[in-house]
Amino acid sequence: MPSTNELVAYCNDYLRVSEIEDWPNALNGLQIDNSGTVKKIGAAVDVSTRALQAAAERGIDFLIVHHGLFWPGLQTVTGALYRQLKMAFEHDIALYSAHLPLDLHSEVGNNAQLAASLGFNTTEPFLEAKGQPIGVRVYVDLAREELTSRLEKSLGATVKTFPFGPSRTNAVAIVSGGAGSEIARVADAKIDTFITGEADHWVTVAAREFGMNLFLGGHYATETFGVKALAAHLSERFKLPWEFLDLPPDS
User: Fold this and answer.
1) 94: nearest Cα among 11, 14, 17
2) For residues 65 and 63, what is the distance between their CA atoms, to the nearest angstrom?
3) Which residues, in sequence order, are bridge partners of residue 95?
4) Distances 195 to 123, 223, 234 between C-alpha atoms, Å
5) What does the pLDDT look like over 165-224, one tens digit per residue?
6) Sign of CA dihedral 84, 87, 89, 93
7) How far apart are CA 248 and CA 82, in angstroms?
8) pTM for the whole structure
9) What span, in angstroms and rounded, lies between the C-alpha atoms of 72 and 117?
10) Which of 143, 144, 129, 135 is nearest to 113 (CA)?
11) HEC string for the chain
């Protein structure tokens, strides 16, 4: 069995964790240690009590998440945080979190993986945040209805579509999660079709003003790709089983 330290060192290097600036509360890397070895890898978008409970029930002792324990910021070890830590310690679960390093990774990243699932194999980095391009851009001539169909198939869910741009795409941007507020910067880059997870109401109004197609696939749904791809990659490299814990916030 590989050691926890081996997996952590590999992930840190593969994802370039030390090189990528992120929001402080992301705290990328190992957030909870375990006793030192790994038997099974798990992947989830968010850490939570039910994610840790599911991991424990499935024998997962190395859980990869996109949103880790410390998103709320500095907090006392009471309530939810106490429950989560207690469960992780009792079931010997290591927790590894990767936010922007997993969004922007060229192989297992959320945006690269979503683009590939849509059939876009030639993309370029797009939309800088914290000094790094976090999304991808592709130039493609595709009917808007066809893109909608592909996106809903990839996400396994209905997509909110605001068809204010051309009926055939030319420049498509993909930025997973909650990137809707970046719509002005996206428009400045001459993008006619913007795919992201969620957006405030004003963003949908802005999409019409910009003459842009806006697709909202859901914050959660657009960020399942990276953790699954990373877990699968580690599974192959370290010869370990892995499982995705599908726990949408509204389920």
Assistant:
1) 11
2) 7
3) 32, 63
4) 14, 12, 28
5) 999 999 999 999 999 999 999 999 999 999 999 999 999 999 999 999 999 999 999 999
6) negative
7) 22
8) 0.97
9) 32
10) 135
11) CCEHHHHHHHHHHHCCHHHCCCCHHHCCEEEECCCCECCCEEEEEECCHHHHHHHHHCCCCEEEEEECCCCCCCCCCCHHHHHHHHHHHHCCCEEEECCHHHHCCCCCCHHHHHHHHCCCCCCEEEEEECCEEEEEEEEEEEEHHHHHHHHHHHHCCCCEEEECCCCEEEEEEEECCCCHHHHHHHHHCCCCEEEECCCCHHHHHHHHHHCCEEEECCHHHHCHHHHHHHHHHHHHHHCCCEEECCCCCCC
The position carrying tokens 């998440």 is: 65
Residue that has been written with the tokens 């579509």 in this structure: 161
Q: In what order do the strands lie in the sheet with 124-129?
A: 124-129, 132-143, 168-175, 193-196, 213-216, 160-163
